[in-house]
Structures are given as C-alpha cells and as structure tokens.
Amino acid sequence: MNSPFRMVAEAQSAIVYVRPVMVADLPEDLREQIGDIETVYSVHRPDGERLALVRDRSMAFSLARQHDLAPVSAH
Q: Strand pairing partners for 73?
C-alpha cells in the first residue's frame, strides 16, 4: 500500500553539546578567572555558540537540564 505520509514540523532543537575544553586554549582573561584547573566543560548550541563554561562534566549536564535542554557529549 502506498499512502502519502505527512511530516509534522519539528520544534527547534533543545539539544546542547557538552565537551571538555583545555583552559590553556582559552583567552587570558578567562584563564585568570578559572585559576589552576586544567580542563573545564563547555555547554554549547549545535551552531557552536558557547552558552557556559563550568568546572566539571556533571555540572554541565545538570545546568543544561535545569534549563530544559537535552545535553549530549561531544568529543
């Protein structure tokens, strides 16, 4: 049976990506604020816009979920 299937438009994606970032790769002003930590975690949108930098991975996931976002790991 061939029946046409009508697609429903999807809502804007609530996915955000969490990935480790080497503090040494960040601008100097951020490095000074972060202190002696070597790695922080970035929460960013699919288009690459950084939403937050946090101390650890679990905090990044919690932060995203608190804002009704769906975090996934990016390497």
A: 18
